[in-house]
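Standup notes
- DV: blocked on the single-chain target, sequence here:
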Amino acid sequence: MTMDGTSTNDPATRGIAPDGRTAGTVLGALRLDGSASVTFRRGYPTDPADLWDAVTKPGRLARWLGPVYGDLVPGGRFELRMGADDSASDQNATGVVQSCDPPRSFAVEWCFPGERPSEVEVRVEPAPASDVGERAVLVLVHTRLETAQAVGYGAGWHTSLDQLADHLAGIAIRDWDARFTELIPAYRAAAAPD
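- DV (later): unblocked, structure below
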């Protein structure tokens, strides 16, 4: 089931099976009708306050996603430097913080070179009691995408959320390029027509 209530059996939605850590859970769902989107609902073995801190504090974001610069308040502009901390890189996302409700949610306009603006919403929730070993849940929804973008963002966010798990576990952050390369075929297959 995706965040918006659609079943992963819905022909417009393609689920991606997990990497074995949480068997039976859909880690990413591509919605391909109309404006494409990518949705993740990922549990972590930390409390919601720590998870919120990990996804909103520049010092912690730099450890698993990349350095972020700017005014991280509603209406503020930001730049996220993925990979090398280089302001001239073509891998930097920019945008505007649209809303922020600490410690529960934020939304940003997401601008990536060569793409039309899209939107990323992040929510942090307490994990349901039935989610053994998980104390907090992160929901990430990236909308207003074209289908080809959804495939890349599916594998990309999946990789980044794996890196967040590494950061929260206090272990070495896995290589982004290697993990993305491993995942992209599954996302391409999920987006392919039946």
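- Follow-up: The chain has four helices and nine strands.
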